[in-house]
């Protein structure tokens, strides 16, 4: 049986997108017959996770090695979110712990899944010129220690929409730009439905509605903020679909 152990900053029910992603990934693996395990630094012990071993890590290299030894995984899956592990977004000690793990006689393969890398200097105020390079260096150290590295990149889900003047957008082919615009339009509505970060939305259905799209949202009571926010962010989807976007909150 394949054994995979996840290391993440937080797990559900803590409000954390990376934790939700971990729960989803681990559940999908468990349904395929993989034995999943978890390592955490959260003093809370009641997590909403698939069945599997759960170990507490105190942040030291020795403690991480002990957790790995107890679970004996084939793969260690690191959910890398700098600010999840460190106030300043640069958990250098995690890199040191992985370096020690690499020297162990029996060690698992390592997956580094990058959910974020670093902030730009202007986003960090007075600390930016020092902190941004340190964040980039730290994530580079951790990524180099992985056997496999994935990266999740999200843009255009908040304020701005794709524009011809954006440098990265200009590099894409016309077909790739259409794909980015379409995915950004869907992502913006999804981000609106998570406006309160309360996990209120349970499901939704979408269908063609005249020249536009109708989206029916099933959610907990008191989800008017999420629906309002999704409507506010449906502008790009309206432009792409060529018609109005109707978002309705359904009774549960």
Outline? globular
CATH topology heading of the largest domain: Rossmann fold
Return residue spans where pLDDT drops below 50 for at least 5 consecutive residues: none
| Rg (C-alpha, Å) | 21 Å
Structural class assignment: alpha/beta
Side-by-side strand order of the widest sheet: 3-2-1-4-5-6
Q: Tell me about the largest β-sheet.
A: 6 strands, parallel
Number of helices: 9
Strand content: 15-25%
Q: In CATH terms, what is the architecture of the largest domain?
A: 3-Layer(aba) Sandwich
Entry keywords:
three-stranded mixed beta sheet; GMP Synthetase, Chain A, domain 3; Rossmann fold; 2 domains; six-stranded parallel beta sheet; 9 strands; 21% strand; globular
Task: Describe this protein's structure.
The chain is an alpha/beta fold and 252 residues long. The protein has two domains: 3-151, Rossmann fold (3-Layer(aba) Sandwich), CATH 3.40.50.720; 167-250, GMP Synthetase, Chain A, domain 3. Helix content is 38%, strand content 21%. Strands 3-2-1-4-5-6 form a six-stranded parallel beta sheet, sandwiched between helices. It has a three-stranded mixed beta sheet with strand order 7-8-9. Helix 5 (128-144) links the parallel strand 5 (109-114) and strand 6 (148-151). The mean pLDDT is 87.
Please provide a brief summary of the model.
With 252 residues, this protein is of the alpha/beta class. It has helices at residues 17-31, 61-71, 82-85, 92-102, 128-144, 167-170, 174-192, 224-232, 235-241, and strands spanning 3-7, 35-40, 54-56, 75-80, 109-114, 148-151, 201-209, 212-219, 245-250. The strands form 2 sheets. A 6-stranded parallel sheet has the order 3-2-1-4-5-6, sandwiched between helices. Strands 7-8-9 form a 3-stranded mixed sheet.
């Amino acid at each position: 049986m394949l054994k995979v152990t996840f290391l993440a900053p937080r797990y559900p029910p803590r409000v954390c997108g990376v934790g939700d992603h971990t729960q989803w990934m681990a559940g999908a693996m468990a349904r395929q017959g993989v034995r999943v395990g978890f390592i955490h630094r959260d003093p809370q012990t009641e997590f909403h996770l698939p069945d599997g071993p759960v170990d507490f890590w105190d942040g030291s290299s020795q403690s991480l090695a002990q957790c790995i030894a107890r679970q004996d995984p084939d793969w260690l899956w690191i959910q890398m979110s700098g600010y999840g592990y460190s106030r300043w977004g640069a958990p250098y000690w995690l890199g040191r712990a992985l370096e020690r793990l690499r020297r162990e006689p029996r060690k698992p393969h390592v997956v580094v899944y990058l959910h974020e890398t670093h902030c730009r200097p202007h986003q960090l105020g007075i600390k930016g010129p020092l902190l941004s390079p340190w964040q980039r260096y730290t994530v580079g150290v951790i990524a180099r220690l992985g056997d496999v590295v994935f990266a999740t990149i999200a843009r255009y889900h908040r304020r701005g929409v794709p524009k011809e003047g954006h440098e990265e957008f200009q590099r894409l082919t016309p077909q790739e730009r259409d794909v980015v615009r379409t995915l950004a339009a869907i992502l913006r509505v999804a981000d609106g439905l998570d406006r309160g970060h309360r996990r209120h939305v349970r499901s939704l259905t979408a269908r063609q509605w005249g020249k536009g799209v109708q989206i029916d949202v099933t959610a907990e009571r008191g989800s008017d903020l999420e629906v309002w926010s999704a409507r506010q962010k449906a502008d790009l989807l309206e432009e792409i679909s060529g018609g109005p976007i109707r978002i309705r909150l359904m009774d549960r």
